[in-house]
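DM between two lab members

TW: hey, do you still have the Gfo/Idh/MocA family oxidoreductase entry open?
JB: yeah, one sec
JB: this one, 346 aa:
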Amino acid sequence: MHVAVVGYGYWGSKHVRVLSTMPDVAVSVVDADKRRREEAEALYPSIRRTAGTIDEVLDEVDAVLVATPPGSHYDVAMRALSAGKHVLVEKPLATSVDDAEAMVAAADDNDVQLMVGHTFEYNPAVRQLRDIIRSGELGRVLYVDSARLSLGLYQRDVNVIWDLAPHDISIASYLLDELPVATSVWAHRNIGPWREDVAYLRLDFPSTHAFVHVSWLNPQKVRRTTVVGERRMAVYDDMSDNERIRIYDIGVDPADIDNPHMAHEMPVTYRTGNIISPFVPFREPLLVQDREFVDSIRSGVRSATPGERGLDIVRVLASTDVSMETGKVAPVLSRSAAARGVKASS
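TW: and the structure you got?
JB:
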């Protein structure tokens, strides 16, 4: 199978690396920057060819992997979909709901696979954490808290929410097996007048809440999700070398006050117990994801993150834009509401 990777930047270079390890896949690299093309050729001699534009390779390939800046995802993907090519698009699928809907429709019209790069949904630790939640070991989920922080990379065409939060929104949605119904946002521009570089999100799910902190302006790289349950709590730390998941047998229970001298304290009791770190067999999530893309094309079976999944997350991101503009809680427009022509409002 011949796959063209469009965009040889941060993510594109990683896709080229993992695809080049697959003996049944041929790879071409498309990037307008000649220096990047030369770098790809030097590092991966097996690359079939490089090109400056997608039009140079579109007739030769079976599939296209879009790893360009988010603002160009729609144009590149639609060109490939219209040509009958299978497409994998890095997150976010698009930068507007209308564009994402058009991409999903184009894939359906041309009978090709459209997949979104929600890489963490292919992470073994995230998948194991979902199994732990489903088992009931944590009890009812009280809330989910996540942080995705680092120094950069500042983006030209999207703010920090559209750049980083798709990961955390998809993780929370994946863990809870439901989508947010509303969002509220605080965001701020610290460097320059162009894009918000730090933000706090609250996602209202039907069953609970999730809180997301994202930043391009932080001294440490943080990739952490905490699930607080009634019985136990779990922390997934993607930066940990050997303990990606920790389960804490710890919590707080309501209690009656027996001692009148303690009436000023909250009527709760605290539980403390063991900390367990289950073994998580590691497989590189990007490799698992890209392998599934190739296999889905061959089998005709939709991937775990089809275009519709990407569209759902874009709807949530669009809701954060409304919340930032209005300063209020903004509903997430569902697929059924969109089909009826209902507009999101503050």
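TW: got it. The first strand starts at residue 2 and ends at 6. Residues 188 and 196 are 5 Å apart (CA to CA).
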